Amino acid sequence: MASDQIIQVARLRKRFDDREVLKGVDLAVERGMVTTIIGGSGSGKSVLVKHIIGLLKADEGQVLFEGEDITPLGPRKLADVRRNFGMLFQHSALFDSMTVEENVAFPLVEHTRLPAKRIREIVADKLALLGLSGIEPLFPSALSGGMRKRVGLARSIVLNPKVIIYDEPTTGLDPIMTFNVDQMVREMQEKLKVTSIVISHDMASTFRVSDRIAMIHDGRIVEYGTPDEFQASANPVVRRFLDVATAAPRASTGGAP
Fold first, then answer.
1. Is residue 92 one of the residues assigned to a domain?
2. How confident is the model at residue 169 (pLDDT cuts 50, 70, 90)?
3. I need a labelling partner for 131 at 20 to 30 A (CA). Which of 13, 36, 40, 63 fits?
4. Structural domain range at position 72
């Protein structure tokens, strides 16, 4: 089934003081797919995503969500747009003083007037979807790293967003945990039929989870395509990034330096 474009970024420019971070970014995010944005440190990945969810205002250009340009919207209308987005932060960002149930329920308490009983039911449903039934009374300190990631994801989907954003979800994780997080991203894609945007620098993970990959370099998108198209790219910037990202560390030969 052909997909349409849920998000369109056109000629986006953003400057901070004397530094221009985004220099005319064009990007289309296709509905129902996992699009991963890669690039070096300071390349503008997070700045781009903050524009997509309306946390930053562009100096020039447009960000369209379902055909509506969100760049001129005021705070109230932007808040309504943001409810279409769920975000899993790099370190889950759970509240240590709250139980799992309270953490997951937080967006419902803040943004709806649902009765407490209904909120508990929704929280239980989202936790069950992620294989976490029965952990509602626990505090984050009692959870493993993988469980905290899943609780963070449960909180991000509790308002039934159309788009889930994963901010460097595998940073600092061992290979097995990274693989488990990748599986979680794909599981949510299949179960919820949502659109996902992943910010990443982990190329092995990127190739496992992505339907589309966009590389940002020097403030512009320099490559966009499927994982196969990306790996076959002749773009020298892409080739160097891939070569460095996938290079095996050189073994020590021992002896005196």
1. no
2. confident
3. 36
4. 1-84+202-243
